[in-house]
Every structure is written in C-alpha cells, then in structure tokens.
Amino acid sequence: MSPEHGSPSPLVEMREMRVSFGGVHAVDGVSIDLFPGEVLALVGGNGAGKSTLIKTLSGALRPDSGQILVNGEVAHIEDPIDAKAHGIETIYQTLALAENIDAAGNMFLGRELTTGVGNLDDSAMEDATRKIMARLNPKFENFKAPVASLSGGQRQSVAIARAVHFNARILIMDEPTAALGPAETEQVRQLIRQLKRENIGIILISHDIHDVFDLADRISVMLQGELVGTVNREDVSIDDVLGMIIVGKLPGELTKSELADLHG
Amino acid sequence: MALTEDATAKSDSALDEDEHVAQRLGRGPWTSFKRGVRSLELDTRLFGMIAGLLVIWIGFHVISGGTFLTPRNLWNLTVQTSVVAIMATGMVLIIVSRNIDLSVGSMLGFVGMIMALLQAEWLPQIFGFDQWYTWIIVLVAGLLVGGLIGLIQGAVVAYAAVPSFIVTLGGLLIWRGLAWVLASGRTIAPMDSTFQLLGGGARGSVGGTVSWIIGALACVVIVLLLSSRRRTRLKFGFRVRPLWADIALMVFGIAVVLVAVWFLNRYFMPEGLAAQYAAERGIEVPEGGLEIPFGIANPVLIAIATAIVVTFIATKRRFGRYVYSIGGNPEAAALAGIKTKRTIAMTFMLMGVLVGLAAAVQIARLNSATSGLGTLQELYVIAAAVIGGTSLAGGVGTIFGAVLGALVMQSLQSGMVLVGIETALQDVVVGVVLILAVAADVVYRRRQST
Predict the structure, then answer these.
(1) pTM for the predicted model, two decimal places
(2) Which of B46, B43, B99 is nearest to B394 (CA)?
(3) Does A89 have pLDDT greater than 80?
(4) What are the distances in angstroms from CA A216 to CA A41, A87, A192, B332, B343?
(5) Is the CA virtual torsion B429, B444, B251, B257 positive or negative?
(6) B370 in helix, strand or coil?
(7) Does B333 contact A112 at a Cβ distance shorter than 8 Å?
(8) Are residues B366 and B286 in the same domain?
(9) How many domains does chain B have?
(10) Least CB-CB distance to B324: which of A100, A110, A180?
C-alpha cells in the first residue's frame, strides 16, 4: 500500500480477496483500500463480483482467502457482528429490513436496547429512532407501522438510519438510490456528502455512472471477478470508466476501434 | 428497477388520493366514528374475532334452547380449551418463524405416557405410592423430556436444514410409535392423587374466593399496564390515546374479567359433592342446600399463565423479536447478526416444553394415559393458531389471538355436541370454519395493505 503524501493511513485494506461458488471465481484476488472521509465507488457490470466482495467486508460471506485490515490491523470478520464491532455498517441493495416489524425494531435489530432485566426497551428505541429520523427524514411519521406499509423512500431512510445511528466509521452502500425517486435520490446524495465531512469512509456500489462521478473520490472497477483498476475521479472521464467496465482496460490502453465500439 | 420505482410512486400517490377523497367528502358521522375507533389504536382484527366468538355463543345458546351460555357449560368449555390453548401459544412462534410442528399430538402422547408410567409404575417402585413430591418429579420430567424432543427436532430443522414439515411429520410417526412401545398399548391409570389436581375437577379448582382474588389481581394488572404504558409514552413525548379511550379500554378489560369470574363462580358443586366438601371442612349445611362454587379450574389458570409468559417472551424479550424478524425476513435477520439457527431450534424447544405441560394437564384430567393420547391434536393446535390470525407465510401472529382461536374451535365443538350434531358432521363444520376464517383473514390483510 502506498498512501499518498499527507493522507492518513487507510481505514480499510482488503488484500487479495478470493471467493468462489462451486468452482466459479466470483471474486478473484481483488485488493482495494478506503481512506477516512473518502467515497470509493465500486462499479462494474452485473455479476462483476462487487456485491460478493463487499459481503466479505460486511461479514455476510466468508472469503476463501484474503486479508482484511481495519486501521492497519488484521480484522477477523466471520459474521455481521464482527463487522459491526469494527465500525463497518452496510446498507444492502435489498435494504434487509424485516417487513413485519416497525422502524425502531428494524433500526435496533440485533442490537436492541434493553432495560436492566433484559426486557426490550421499546420506548427508548422509538425515542432514538424519532431523533435520528428528525435529522435524516423529517417527514417520517409512521413509527408504529410495520415497514412493509412504508414507501420506498421511507424504507430506505430506515435502512440508512440503522447504518448511521451506530457511529459507523466505514459505511458500505449497495445501490442506495436504485429504488428511489429523484427527490429522495438527492437526499441520499446530500447525506453521503455530510457523512464524508464527518470523516466516514464510504464504499458506494452503483450502476448510475452519474452518481459515481458526482460523489466518488476514487473509482474501483471490477470485471468478471477481477479488479480492472482503481482510478482517481479527477483523472478520468466517464468514457474512460465505461471502457474499464465494459472492455476491462485502463484509460490509455483502449484502442481506437474499442473506443468507437463504446460509442457504437 | 423501473418497476419498483413505479410501484413506490403509485403507493405514495394512492395514499395522498385517499386523504384528498376523505377531505372532499367531509367528515361525516361514519368518518368521525372511524377516527374515534382509530384513536383507540385497537386491533380491529382481534375485535372481529371476539365478535365472531360472541355470535357462535349466542347462536348456540338460541339453537340449543338456552343450554349453551350456562355457567356449567362455559366452565367446562374453559377446561376443554386449556390443553389446545397451551400448545397453541408455542405453535404461534413456530409458525411465525416460517416453520410448522406436526408432531405435537404424538409428542403429547409420548410425553404423557412417560409421565403416566413414572407416577403409576416407575416411581412407586422406588418411593411408594402417593408421595407429596411425586407430582413435582413427574411434571419436571415431562417438561424436560418435551423440551429435549423439541430441541432435537428443532436442531435438525435449523442446523441440518431439513424442512420442519418433514422433520415433524417424521416426529408424528416416531413419537406415536414410541408411545405405544412404552406401554405395549396398555392404558396406564390411575394418576397420582396430587398430580390429578393439574387436570381440574372439583378439587383441581381454586374455589370461589380465590377466583375473586385472582380476578381482582387481574384488574389491578390491567390498570397498571395501561397507565404505565401511558406514562412512559408521555415521558418520551410520544402520541398517546385520548384519555377517555384509555379509560374506556380499562373499564372494558375490567368488566370482561369480572363478568367472567362471576359467571364461572356460578357453577356450583353438585349436592353430594358439596355435602362431602362441607363435611370435610365442618361447614353446616343450611336449609335449601349449599352453593359452593368450583371456581376457576387449575388447567385454565395454567393456560392463562402460559399465555402471559409466552406473550411476554414474544413481545418483550430479544428472543421473541428475533423469531418475528426471522419470519419477516430471514436474510435480514441473519445480516443483522441474529443467530437464526439457534433461535429456530429454541422455538421448537419451547414448543416441546409446552407440549409437556399440556400433556400433564391432559393425563391429569383423564386420570389415565393411552397410546392414542393426543391423536389429531396437532391439527387443532395449528387451526387455533391460524384462526387466531397467525399467518402461515410467517412473521405475523399473536399469542392472545391463538388462545381466542382455541376458544372459538372448542366453542364450535361443544356447541355442536350440545345441539346434537353427529360427530362426522362436526368435523365437516370445523374444517369449513377453518377455511372460512383464513379466507376472511386473507381478505382483511389485502384490504389493509392497499
């Protein structure tokens, strides 16, 4: 690893990660790193291995090999609890909400607040949820309803609130705006900028190349389980990144005919 | 992707539209009534069930020429409901977690047989008959054996990933077979004299005075629960029901408790038994005979206590929250770091313990155990949970609903006996009611979700 001059040491380093499903290499020797206050976009086509890679970081999946370092120290992430203990929070594309439970129940799922004798402290959880929602989505009102009855945007804010509430230092967002309308998408973008200012490191998976160029500091591109490369956003054009995603070549490596094909 | 966006947008605008329509139409008496009902924050579904129960009761009362709503019949009804109700509380958690337990009837037979053999044959060989502690050993052994069986089945479901339908279908055959093997098909009787008290009857009931005390305690608990809930919500500045609504609810709850106790206490011991009871206690028999109430039967108290404990576990403990979250979205539960396999195994273990308890009540009530004990009970237990609003799709269901469901089923059955409908037709009716209840529930939920 070669941190740039003056930049802090990486929050996360994933080294030579490998995951295979029945002989298929879903992730094949990928290394990425993430710095505090940085948005790292992870892009690539369907089946490129982005989600699989971040699942090894969020504890949802155990890699076959590879090493994860958090703050320079080797982290053994066996399950989601380990990941959360390292300050790694994840917003999944599916949102991963229990539809039958209310917002507070989902926000504290697996980390419930309890009273002295171990009973669920529903009021305290609702209170905390109301407080964070007042910040994230002031229009949110249905605190007692199961999240199944909420709109897409409201459900998204529950998922985001859950990730933000527990003082995440590393936030993984898998397609956070895929199910949202324009206004809600803008809200999420604002939030990402705000979290960045709070020095949280964010890994952003997105299909939306405009999202990526709007928000990311660096862009890592994956193709067929392998890392094509990581580039600084300022150094590349959208075409360069599309070339990496589709052809798997770094900017400058593309031939004229390949460039022409891209614009086909 | 485009699809979900559309769906989201649609549901949002549909909501707005509803509001607009409501505003355009103005607030008629019906609207304000609905608002009033909504401010009570009641489970309308539950009230539907209570209404259904009342219809069944009054219907049978009329058809039977006034023999259904008698203290004697209702007292028996409560006792008969107990065994299914105890097991239904556990079945709710099993079904909520997207599983099923088909083995509870056979397990009841097997565990009941073990408990019967323990007190009628095995323990007396060591300690002699009718020791004061026999019932404790037997009951604890029953709960342990039930819990162990449940744990084994649950572990196979959770860790070996064999569908619960198959595991417990196997269990249905295995435990029934073993119940027969244990006693070679004999009927084991009689039960220990203290143990029999678990089953109800004249001695196994708490009497009039204690019933009133229990009723009074229940009223105090209702008041405390509602007021402490209100206080906490006010403390956090949350919205609360209007005060009149809370008070109305309180009064309603207290009224139900007091009427129930009063009615059950109107069931008096038959003359001979009353005379014997009086003689034992040195009470003089006045002119016109004695009116000694049975009071609430022990099995009923056991069932109520079970329902309270399981409700507490389901709503106030992490375990319960996890069971519901697994039912709502197993993947989300796992990603939240919940040990889903362990939780599933535990639900089956709890079910097993409850089967042990139900088996104790059943053999105590029958004062015997046969290898056919509990046959087909699994179906009544599952039906009670489902009629009570537990969704087979998982994630949804209440303990109280299941207990009501058990009461509905038992009311139907004993009502039909009273009216003189033949056994074969009774099954037909119960089957039809089960399907209708679930159909009504599906319609209700569909309406709610749009």
Answers:
(1) 0.89
(2) B99
(3) yes
(4) 6, 21, 10, 28, 40
(5) positive
(6) coil
(7) no
(8) no
(9) 2
(10) A100
- For the cut 50, the answer to whether the pLDDT of residue B16 exceeds it is no
Q: Which of B5, B232, B318 sits opposite A181 (nearest CB)?
A: B5
Q: How many CB atoms lie within 10 A of CB A143?
A: 16
Containing structural domain, residue B94: 43-205+297-449
User: CA-to-CA distance for B84 and B230, rounded, in angstroms?
Assistant: 34
**Hey, are the CB atoms on A90 and B335 less than 8 Å from each other?**
yes
Q: What is the pLDDT of residue B42?
A: 66
Residues B439 and B290 in one domain: no
- Chain B residue closest in CA terms to A91: B335
Tokens found for residue A84? 């959360």
Rounded Cα distance, B205 and B183, in Å: 30
Can you say whether the dihedral through the CA atoms of B83, B88, B94, B95 is positive or negative? positive
Tokens in use for B161? 């990933």
**Four-point Cα dihedral A177, A181, A182, A185, nearest 10:** -30
B367: in domain: yes
Q: Is A118 touching B (CB cutoff 8 A)?
A: yes
**Smallest Cα–Cα separation from B88: which of B303, B260, B318?**
B303
Q: Is residue B3 a part of any domain in this protein? A: no
- At residue B41, the pLDDT reads 62
**ipTM of this predicted structure:** 0.89
**Any CB–CB contact under 8 A between B396 and chain A?**
yes
What the block records as the tokens of A179 is: 């199910």
Spatial distance between the Cα atoms of B325 and A112, rounded to a whole number of angstroms: 12
Assigned token pair, B206? 């708490």
Mean of pLDDT over chain B: 89
Query: Per-residue b/e over B15-53, b at no fewer than 16 CB within 10 Å?
Result: eeeeeeeeeeeeeeeeeeeeeeeeebeeeebeeebeebb
Q: What is the mean pLDDT of chain A?
A: 89
Q: Are residues B217 and B243 in the same domain?
A: yes
More confident of the two residues B5 and B117: B117
Closest approach of B6 to chain A, Cα-based (Å): 9
Residues B130 and B242 in one domain: no
Three-class DSSP category at B17: helix
CATH of the domain at B319: 1.10.3470
CA distance B170 to chain A (A): 31
Say if A96 is an interface residue toward chain B (CB within 8 Å).
Answer: yes
* Digit-coded pLDDT (tens) for B118-164: 999 999 999 888 789 999 999 999 999 999 999 999 999 999 999 99
Nearest by CB to B233, which of A79, A99, A123?
Answer: A123
Q: How many domains does chain A have?
A: 1
A97: nearest CB among B4, B324, B329: B329
User: Is B317 in Cβ contact with A98 (below 8 Å)?
Assistant: no
pLDDT at A47: 86
pLDDT at residue B106 in the model:
98
Query: What is the 3-state composition of chain B as percent helix, strand, coil, each rounded to the nearest 5?
Result: 75, 0, 25
In-domain check, residue B8: no
Q: What is the CATH number of the domain that holds A77?
A: 3.40.50.300
